[in-house]
Amino acid sequence: MLFAIADLQAQVLRRPMAAAYTGLGAYSTHHVDVFSIAANQASLAQLQQGAVGIYGERRFLQTELSNYTALAALLTRSGNFGLKANYAGFSDYHESQIGLAYARKLGTKIDIGAQFNYNGIQIAGYGNATALSFELGAILHLTDKLHSGIQISNPVGGKYGKNKDEKLSSLYTFGIGYDASEKLLVSAEVQKEEDQPVNVNTGVQYRFLPQFMARVGVATSTSSLWAGVGFKLKSFRIDITSGYHPQLGFTPGVLLLFQFNQKKN
């Protein structure tokens, strides 16, 4: 009788397929929005209006791989606060996360941010487990148009359960964005996740009209393409998105964003 033992890497549900789409505006001052928090918490410092947003996607058209994210931002004189909630999976297996973020400006050139997360996994018949983690971010405004930054997720590794058998992976990201104009943004980020190959996300956003914009990009690690269009009416915006994996197919998504009229002093 022969036995073989091997370590297998399961696909991560926690990060939406269109994370590069929703977080594209993080390294920008003209195109930043509440969803940028998920890419780099420091971008929260650049928001000029409080906002709430919801994003949902059906990964590879499979109900069991659905992913939902909700975000909210509150602006204060002592810094900006953000709240993030994420749910991925279905009734028999799902992962969830609730995070509280804070960011502020350090002068005119540097923004910093941090986020503390409460993570959970529930498996039917096996119960649930929880873990704590944190994220750190910083953005440097090199010029009025060029911005770069770093984001670190879970650098020391939160672990699930009483026996701490399953560890949340660490993720390190370097990003850069160029505000070519108030209409055009070009952005890229290099990501290194623990035990995974380096991934490069590149994307472009163009605002054809104040009410209409489009985004398109690619993730190199899986050769996945993503794109979407957004329509804005006063304080409300809706985006229709789609990702494409060459072997697994399409991932449709919808983003809803509402910005409060009250602006930061």
**How many structural units, i.e. domains?**
1
- Based on helices, strands and strand pairing, what is the structural class? mainly beta
What helical percentage do the residues reach?
A: under 10%
Strand content: over 45%
Describe the structure concisely for a colleague:
This protein is an all-beta fold and 265 residues long. It has a single domain (25-263), classed as Porin (Beta Barrel), CATH 2.40.160.
Overview of this structure, please?
The chain is mainly beta. The chain has one domain: Beta Barrel (Porin), CATH 2.40.160. It has 1 helix and 16 strands. A hairpin with a 4-residue loop joins strand 13 and strand 14 (224-233). The N and C termini lie far apart (73 Å).
Furnish the topology, listing elements before pairings.
Layout: H1 19-22, E1 49-58, E2 66-76, E3 79-89, E4 93-106, E5 110-123, E6 127-141, E7 146-153, E8 159-160, E9 166-167, E10 171-179, E11 184-193, E12 199-209, E13 212-219, E14 224-233, E15 236-245, E16 249-263
Antiparallel strand pairs: 1-2, 1-16, 2-3, 3-4, 4-5, 5-6, 6-7, 7-10, 8-9, 10-11, 11-12, 12-13, 13-14, 14-15, 15-16
List keywords for this structure.
single chain, 265 residues, mainly beta, 14-stranded antiparallel β-barrel, two-stranded antiparallel ribbon, 1 helix, 16 strands, 60% strand
